[in-house]
Design a protein that fits this description.
The chain contains 5 helices and no strands. By secondary structure, the protein is mainly α. It folds into 2 domains: about 30 residues; about 80 residues, no CATH class. Helix 2 packs antiparallel against helix 3, helix 3 runs antiparallel to helix 4 and helix 4 runs antiparallel to helix 5. The termini are far apart.
């Protein structure tokens, strides 16, 4: 009889501990980390927008290359902070790069994609529209 009780205790205690941990882990709120200070990226995009507003799409395309280099260089540090937020900004970045690098870029499309990129940099939690 002692052996049966011992066996039950040896099974019940780890099972209860595991179940208790699972309940606790699921009830603990998960915090979402931001992407840190994105001011340097916003500054570059502000420059790109200034070129585009003047109608200098070639200058805007040249300046956005600086953004692309900085964004790619920062990827290893920024992406792990919040892969979802990083993906939102990266998607907006790709759209802006594509719009500026078209054979005949449309000023309206460039403005729209740059506005979306700046919005993503300002609030990375929002998916790109």
């Amino acid at each position: 009889m002692k052996q049966i009780l011992l066996a039950l205790v040896l099974i019940a205690v780890p099972a209860a501990a595991f179940t208790g941990y699972q309940v606790y882990a699921k009830s603990t709120p998960v915090s979402t980390a931001g992407l840190g200070d994105l001011t340097a990226f916003k500054t570059i995009i502000t420059d790109v927008e200034a070129f585009a507003t003047k109608g200098d799409l070639a200058g805007a395309a040249a300046r956005i290359t600086d953004y692309e280099s900085a964004w790619d260089h920062g990827q290893t540090a920024i992406r792990p902070l919040n892969p979802t937020y990083w993906g939102n900004v990266d998607e907006a970045s790709d759209a802006a790069l594509k719009a500026l690098r078209e054979a005949s870029p449309s000023a309206d499309k460039v403005k729209k994609t740059l506005d979306a990129l700046m919005a993503a940099l300002s609030d990375p939690s929002q998916p790109v529209q």
